[in-house]
Specification:
This protein is of the alpha/beta class. The protein has two domains: about 5-155 and about 250-270, Rossmann fold (3-Layer(aba) Sandwich); about 170-240, RNA polymerase II/Efflux pump adaptor protein, barrel-sandwich hybrid domain (OB fold (Dihydrolipoamide Acetyltransferase, E2P), Beta Barrel). Helices cover about 15% and strands about 30% of the residues. Strand 4, helix 3 (about 70-75) and strand 5 (about 80-85) form a beta-alpha-beta unit. The longest helix is centred in the last third of the chain and has 18 residues, at about 250-270. The chain is globular.
Length: about 270
């Protein structure tokens, strides 16, 4: 694989952004594909915010929204990363990427196939290495995080968040009803248990408070105006109050996964 070969990443959330940042830092050419309405909560470290804002920057990486594949070259020439709204990957055949990374983290395959590129990589559960894609990278926190899987699948989604600062499920907040999400607080705010951080305005006209369970820093918060359903992830509290800057930095988990992806890309280039 040549240095100017294209690496296409499907997804621009916080974990995907860790991978994109690592590839970009290595001097590789990356194109990001996203949906029309991304639902990232760690928005300060998610390149998908460019879909809404037109551009965004994460740790020195500047991402720019483009409206057609032909616009990507100018963005690469500026040393930036283009983000294209293309949830079905319609541009992949024309783009002819050397590598496709499925970093959607949907816990299921939304259409990525081995035919899309000479090397296909998927992050997390929902894929079988050797069938759906060439390789899978483990995304579950713990001893196996970042493990490269060439046969089989990643650990199935347990629905239980990894423990940070002694808290697991309590640190992640989900919508309790169908409606439109409205922020009350902001990312990087300090919060206490029982504090209202947002509201959900239901179709019936009710306004329901969204509250925290633990003290800490509001590390992630869904964008205001987003439609939610019961169980939809809307916020994330980091109990480590001394680590405010984490709201603006790629996580350890994302960096670990990114290292495995870069390893695979480099290994493929020297085969």
């Amino acid at each position: 694989m040549k240095k100017d070969s294209l690496i296409l990443v499907r997804g621009g959330g916080d974990l995907a952004t860790g991978t994109i940042h690592r590839l970009w830092s290595a001097g590789l050419r990356v194109l990001v594909l996203e949906t029309e309405h991304p639902a990232a909560i760690r928005r300060q470290v998610s390149l998908c915010e460019a879909v809404y804002e037109g551009q965004t920057t994460v740790e020195g990486l500047h991402a720019v929204k483009i409206h057609a594949l032909d616009e990507a070259e100018a963005v690469w020439s500026a040393g930036d990363v283009p983000v294209l709204v293309d949830p079905k990957g319609a541009c992949i055949a024309k783009a002819k990427p050397a590598v496709v990374v499925d970093a959607i983290l949907a816990k299921k395959n939304l259409g990525t196939t081995r035919e899309m590129a000479p090397l296909t990589i998927a992050l997390g559960p929902g894929f079988v290495a050797g069938q759906d894609v060439d390789v899978v990278v483990e995304t579950k926190r713990g001893h196996k995080l970042g493990r490269i899987i060439r046969e089989g699948s990643a650990i199935p989604n347990t629905g239980v968040p990894g423990v940070i600062g002694g808290y697991g499920a309590e640190r992640v907040i989900h919508a309790q009803a169908t409606g439109v999400f409205e922020d009350v607080r902001s990312i990087a705010d300090f919060v206490e248990p029982g504090e209202t951080i947002a509201r959900i305005r239901t179709p019936e006209g009710e306004v329901l408070p969204v509250t925290t369970q633990i003290p800490g820093i509001l590390r992630g918060l869904l964008r205001s105006g987003y439609p939610v359903t019961p169980g939809f992830k809307v916020a994330d509290v980091d109990p480590r109050r001394s680590e405010l800057e984490n709201c603006f930095l790629i996580s350890d988990k994302a960096r670990c996964i990114a290292g495995s992806v870069l390893e695979l890309v480099v290994a493929n280039s020297i085969e």
